[in-house]
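so my prof wants the structure for this chain in the tokens format not the other one, which i didnt know existed until like an hour ago. anyway here's the sequence
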Amino acid sequence: MLITPDISALSYKRQLAKRFDRASRTYDSYADFQKIVLDRLLAMLPLNQADVVLDLGTGTGQALGVLSEQLNTVCNIALDLSPQMLTVASERYSFLSNTYYVCADAERLPLRDKLCDLVFSSLAIQWCLNPLDLFKELYRITKPGGYVLFSTLSQGSMPEISQAWLGLDNEDHVHQYMAPETLMDCIKSSGLNLSSSLLSDIPMWFDTPESAIYSLKKVGASLIASDGEKAMSPSKWKAFLYEYEKQRHELGIPLSYQVSFVVAQRPFGIQE
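here's what i got, hopefully its the right format
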């Protein structure tokens, strides 16, 4: 979920899909941070069994095997905006006969009301433009008593990149992610009940500034909503790397994230 200037939503979604399409074959090799977050989120599963599970923003499908096995699912729905990511996921889990791959926008889900026992999403919903609309959609498709379990980047992520750009220009080079309290307000306004939430600082360390940036680009996570496809001059890139190198610690070059882990539930209603 992004705080962005006014841009064409359709243009943004097209750019986003293209970025993740290009990253589909390199994603797993560079997704160390994503795997850390995914493992923590899977440890928070609020159910022991679920008939229908939606993996929202499934990417290369890293969660599908665990979700299917631990929850003994009847139906897995692997949904992503990127058709190439879905291709990789479907190739990896061709043996999961109960899994259906759907290319769609999380903010306009092609799913019927009260379908899912669990909506699961790891580091995907931060790419959505309208968080309240998103959570209303998740409320709509979740069964009464069902759960929404997700992780998302929060305000204060990747300050090292912002620091390196400071003084080089006045442009944003990192998404302005939502503050945790704003995120919680959106969840509650959607009708979902907040069961638990945790904000974690997760630092990653790299040998060089270049490798830190590649850890973003190679998983498709380098898009700034207002940037489009702007090219950067070699001299500007070199100046950025020089500034980023100044932040080196004994563990290497830092790149840190603020991650919200959230469990929410659609309440049982009298009318249900």
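also thought this was worth mentioning. Confidence is low (pLDDT under 50) at residues 1-6.
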